[in-house]
Specification:
This protein folds into two domains: 3-53 and 178-243, no CATH class; 60-174, no CATH class. Helix content is 24%, strand content 17%. The chain has helices at 3-13, 25-51, 124-131, 195-205, 207-210, and strands at residues 61-67, 69-71, 81-85, 99-104, 120-121, 144-149, 155-160, 168-174.
Length: 250
């Protein structure tokens, strides 16, 4: 289903007409993109956590070749390392799970003996302990990666133990939809069985712009008649069952 078709369905459910001035497709799109990201994060966290091998989320993965930049030090990382900026937003999964795989790319300048190794995820906080142990310290045949935010606000991935001669890497990413880049005629990256949950989420979020009695108007812009009874929708808990319905039981 495309974003346009889904949003038109939302507008019909809200009883809106073409000249409604309180709500628009762009406003609804922002809530739809948020809901898609929320449900996508939930599904991927469950699937990747259950299998541990990334197979469950393979249909949403994009593999790209990224250029590396080498720095000797920075205020964010005290160790000599290389880095690349994420080409787009990725799902906010635990432990940097939006980056599913990093490998040396073909012709990247690495030694043939380390060409097949994969990079292990870590954090900047854990690097001090890793560098302090002989059997875990980062090196070319045992590289690590860690996400952090640069001083200019970019979502960056640092790679540690990589030779400065390496110029590019092969990276698997789970792209999240970005509001500024979504086209209304694009297909939504969501499973069909989640459409009902997505519709409920978007309708619930519509409480705020359309459900406040003192600010609500008729579709033609007129105020309601005095003493009109307005049946407001119930306040939705932050622990909505939608967000917990697919959670894996421990």
């Amino acid at each position: 289903m495309t974003y346009r078709a889904f949003i038109d369905d939302i507008m019909v459910a809200l009883g809106m007409i073409h000249d409604d001035s309180l709500w628009s497709r762009d406003n609804i799109l922002s809530n739809v993109v948020y809901g898609v990201s929320l449900l996508g994060t939930q599904s991927l966290a469950r699937d990747l956590g259950a299998s541990g091998d990334g197979i469950s989320g393979i249909h949403q993965r994009t593999v790209v070749c990224v250029p590396l930049k080498h720095v000797e030090c920075s205020s964010s990382c005290e160790w000599e390392h290389s880095y690349f900026d994420l080409p787009s937003e990725v799902y906010d999964l635990p432990y940097g799970g939006g980056v599913t795989m990093i490998r040396y790319a073909k012709g990247c300048g690495c030694k043939p003996s380390v060409a097949g190794v994969t990079f292990s995820a870590t954090s900047l906080e854990a690097l001090t302990g890793l560098y302090g142990t002989a059997y875990q310290n980062p090196r070319e045949d045992r590289p690590y990666f860690a996400r952090y935010t640069s001083e200019d606000g970019k979502d960056r991935v640092g790679v540690f133990g990589v030779s400065p001669l390496v110029t590019k890497l092969l990276v698997g990413l789970l792209y999240a939809p970005k509001f500024e880049e979504v086209d209304f005629d694009d297909d939504m990256p969501i499973d069909p069985h989640q459409l009902h949950d997505l519709k409920r989420l978007v309708l619930n979020m519509s409480i705020w712009p359309l459900g406040i009695p003192q600010e609500r108007l008729k579709n033609d812009g007129r105020d309601f008649e005095p003493e009109t009874v307005i049946n407001t929708r119930p306040i939705i808990s932050v622990n909505d069952p939608i967000l917990n319905s697919n959670t894996q039981q421990q």
